[in-house]
Amino acid sequence: MSDQATIIGATTWGTTLGILLAQNEVPVNLLARTEAEAQTLSSQGRNARFLPDSLFPEGLSVTSEPESALQQSDLVIIAVPSDRLRENVQRIKAHLKPGMIVLSATKGLELPTARRMSQVLEDELPAELHPGICVLSGPNLAKEIVEGKLASTVIAGRNPEATQKAQNMLMSANFRVYTSADVLGVELAGALKNIVALGAGIGDGMDAGENAKAAFITRGLAEMTRLGIAAGADPLTFAGLAGLGDVVATCSSRL
């Protein structure tokens, strides 16, 4: 039987990842919050709220029932806001089985705990599911990706078999996926880059100029790296897609 996937969260990013998987001929279930939302998405054949111009490919189904969505899945991708990740994991965890890959595509930290997304997964899931926990981060503007424009990302996890399987399922000619063992660094980079992006945006609003923006981004990346090193992350992670790549995309994008 071929690999199958489930996306938790009919968000812009969740829908985009579901479309990518279906285009790769991976059967995928998109888990909606309610039956009404699932019916709307199914009947329209698209996510009119977030991606109105992108039709669902063949192989992408929508449901609001966790049990049916997860029954045959090898890869479970959670793509919800960081303050909603824990409650979504609680909703689905009874239907997860050992051997499944549980991949967080959510950037940020949980408030008020300041827990990283992989830590929230470890908090909520039994130990036998921990080897399958992975995270995804990088310069990933969903609108560009769903339009088929070139992009790259990185999947980090402690189990190489899990990261490589997720990589193989998501990789395409237009979407290159790298793997890493530095879960801490990838997650910190994805969260901290938002602080730099806010500062860069303020500079744009002040018409500070491109020189000032470049200097701010450079020094911001240096601070991100220092914090990562202090926390135990690999400094090279911050020079890669999850760090520099995401900073550049976020600070320069008009999307």
TrEMBL record:
Entry GO terms, CC: cytosol
Residue ranges annotated for the Glycerol-3-phosphate dehydrogenase NAD-dependent C-terminal domain, each copy included: 182-254
InterPro entries: 6-PGluconate_DH-like_C_sf, 6PGD_dom2, G3P_DH_NAD-dep, G3P_DH_NAD-dep_C, G3P_DH_NAD-dep_N, NAD(P)-bd_dom_sf
Parts forming coiled coils: none
GO molecular function ontology, one term from the record: glycerol-3-phosphate dehydrogenase [NAD(P)+] activity
Record keywords, A-Z: NAD, Oxidoreductase
Gene3D superfamilies: N-(1-d-carboxylethyl)-l-norvaline Dehydrogenase, domain 2 (1.10.1040.10), NAD(P)-binding Rossmann-like Domain (3.40.50.720)
Membership in a protein family: Belongs to the NAD-dependent glycerol-3-phosphate dehydrogenase family.
NCBIfam families linked to this entry: PRK00094.1-2 (NF000940), PRK00094.1-4 (NF000942)
Name of this chain's protein: Glycerol-3-phosphate dehydrogenase NAD-dependent N-terminal domain-containing protein
Protein's organism: marine metagenome
